[in-house]
Design brief:
heterodimer, A: alpha+beta, nine-stranded mixed beta sheet, two-stranded antiparallel ribbon, elongated, B: alpha/beta, six-stranded mixed beta sheet, four-stranded antiparallel beta sheet, 10 strands, 33% helix, globular
């Protein structure tokens, strides 16, 4: 191995061509880096928005979930009769159920007094709702009427509720025109549909939204015993329940929500298009750089051909320049991507992070971009006629 | 490898018979070479002179296997170039050293690396050996102190020395030089040509040099004159 390497090793022409022109190299790296950042941001936003749309969904303490077949997504949930959950209890593997009301209500910012739609969840404080073990203790406070738990990750437009609460102040405000008091904080996270969340008891929920029929709920959480086969229970429940409800596993419930944002809205398309723009811009930049590089050195390439170098060897030089550019552009793009993701997380509270799969995809896109541009720039090499240099 | 064998079998380095060449197509087609015939023997230094536009450079590029032969016989180092394939010509070029009017060094490489681009064409030598080989050639042309300089920082004479080292480092059997002294002052030009002749003779390498420069004609074993695409009969 070492032997053959010593024999095939040559002057690293591609590397020297790039590095002996630092200004051009810098422009190239900046361009590729820019394209990479654009792709990182667009794909990151896209995935982040899809993930953000299910932040609350993931936290539910449930194995199976009942929803109305008319529900389209978290922003348009339809109700179904609560007694379906009672019917579910009849199944031998079901160990518990939680009926949940789900709707958007207007929250008044206690500081500026402006109102904004907040996602309100209503449930029986005695039964489990979230997987977080500390939650059931907090839920006890909801047994008093008019108490709510506020999501401390909600956007700032809902007011400085977490700060006030932690200072020990009594935070009272209006939800849907009725007085409520914040009895505690939970951490759920804003989603694409909901800028903030609050949890309350069903009793308070029905008081805040009297138009809700008392026997109607939007989500039914079902917990199974540990040994139960989820798919099997799901099939038997689907068979026994009337078709005014749909049974989903928790994963399906999450996918159902993500799928809505992916297919029924233009978000996926817009951000993928944005990433494609980055790709195209990058292609143009790399092509320009490599093309002018080849043009500037055309006489030198022709000299090499006159010396007996093969055209393929020279193609290899341009291809290697492409690979070097890809790697040198990717590294700063990756680092800037990390930094920008952190910035996005802190300013929008969207769960955007450097997912290794996306890091790979962007790397291969950049590599492909550089190689495609290099292969077009190589066509210029065909013009290098060694007979012209005499 | 086959080429080497052939050239050692007492073949002429270059054998030309009735070589004609045209440029352009259709109505603008113009003949530049008229049935040229000549021979260069191994180890011989031949100078080719003549007014500009007489076809010297065209002849040189044809011998250098850089152009396709249109009509006539042209055999270089034992390879018939009329009707030869592109790959065969490319392999042949590895055995032909070329020195250009402009030095045509690679701007991004140091003197040493430029020479090594020539040495890299040698098969079967390790990187270290090829590096050593190029250094020896640079010492040979008197540039041991300028090895790490870029062409930009070298004088015209030094650049042409690097070009000579580069051409010779690939161990060519034939050296083609097109006005190697045109960009140099007379003293340096003289020096370069003498150096070229000495080194080529030591390597038993034939040289065909195209030149205008009357001051260097005496280095030639043989002098050929060309006019209007024809080689003039030798007048001694």
């Amino acid at each position: 191995m070492k032997f053959s390497f010593l024999h095939s090793r040559r002057i690293p022409l591609a590397w020297l061509l790039l590095t002996r022109q630092p200004l051009r190299l810098l422009v190239a790296i900046a361009g590729i880096c820019f394209a990479g950042i654009l792709m990182f941001m667009q794909l990151g936003f896209r995935d982040g928005l899809f993930d953000a749309s299910v932040t609350v969904h993931r936290l539910f303490d449930a194995d199976l979930v009942l929803v109305s077949p008319r529900s389209m997504s978290s922003i348009s949930m339809s109700g179904f009769p609560r007694r379906r959950l009672v019917q579910v209890m009849a199944h031998k593997d079901v160990i518990g159920t939680t009926p949940v009301n789900w709707n958007f209500l207007l929250w008044r910012n206690p500081q500026t007094l402006s109102t904004r739609a907040i996602l309100a969840l209503g449930f029986e404080p005695g039964s489990p709702l979230l997987t977080d073990p500390k939650f059931s203790e907090k839920a006890q406070k909801l047994k008093n009427s008019g108490r709510v738990l506020f999501d401390d990750l909600s956007r700032e437009e809902f007011g400085p509720v977490p700060d006030w609460f932690l200072e020990g102040r009594t935070v009272e405000t209006e939800v849907a025109g009725k007085r409520v008091r914040v009895a505690g904080l939970v951490s759920l996270g804003p989603s694409f549909g909901a800028d903030g969340n609050m949890i309350t008891s069903r009793e308070t929920f029905l008081r805040l939204l009297p138009s809700t029929p008392p026997g109607s709920i939007e989500i039914g959480l079902i917990r199974l015993n540990a040994q139960a086969d989820h798919q099997k229970v799901l099939r038997s429940l689907s068979a026994s329940l009337p078709n005014d409800v749909k049974v989903l596993t928790k994963e399906e419930f999450i996918d159902f929500e993500k799928n809505y944002w992916r297919t029924s809205t233009s978000i996926g398309f817009i951000f993928t298009l944005g990433a494609a723009m980055g790709f195209v811009v990058g292609c143009v930049i790399v092509y320009q750089i490599l093309y002018s590089d080849v043009s500037d050195h055309l006489a030198e390439y022709a000299t090499l051909m006159a010396m007996g170098y093969r055209l393929q060897t020279l193609f290899g030089v341009v291809a290697r320049e492409g690979i070097f550019l890809a790697v040198m552009g990717y590294v700063p793009a990756y680092l800037s991507g990390q930094a920008l993701y952190a910035l996005v997380r802190s300013s929008t509270k969207l769960p955007v992070s450097m997912d290794p799969q996306r890091a790979c995809i962007v790397f291969f896109l950049i590599l492909f971009m550089c190689m495609a541009s290099a292969s077009v720039a190589m066509r210029r090499l065909i013009d290098a006629d060694p007979a012209d240099i005499f | 490898m086959k080429l080497t064998n052939n050239s050692q079998n007492n073949f002429s380095s270059v054998q030309i018979d009735g070589l004609s060449h045209w440029f352009g197509n259709g109505l603008t087609r113009k003949q530049v070479l008229y049935s040229v015939s000549m021979t260069i023997n191994p180890g011989e230094v031949v100078l080719l002179t003549g007014p500009s536009g007489c076809g010297k450079t065209t002849l040189l590029t044809l011998i250098g296997a850089l152009r396709r032969v249109q009509k006539g016989e042209l055999s270089v180092l034992g390879l018939q170039l009329n009707g030869s394939r592109r790959t065969a010509r490319q392999i042949l070029r590895k055995n032909i050293g070329m020195i250009f009017q402009g030095h045509n060094l690679l701007r991004c490489l140091t003197a040493e690396q430029n020479v090594q681009m020539g040495a890299d064409l040698l098969k079967g030598l390790s990187y270290r050996k090829r590096r050593e080989h190029s250094r020896n050639w640079l010492i040979e042309v008197g540039l041991e102190d300028q090895m790490d300089k870029l062409p930009h920082d070298l004088s015209g004479g030094q650049k042409q020395r690097v070009a000579i080292a580069r051409a010779l480092s690939a161990n060519p059997k034939l050296l083609l030089a097109d006005e190697p002294t045109s960009a140099l002052d007379s003293v340096t030009g003289r020096e370069i040509v003498s150096l070229l002749k000495r080194l080529a003779t030591e390597q038993n390498c034939s040289v065909l040099m195209v030149t205008h420069d009357p001051r260097i004609l005496d280095v030639a074993d043989r002098l050929l004159k060309m006019e209007d695409g024809r080689i003039l009969p030798i007048v001694e």
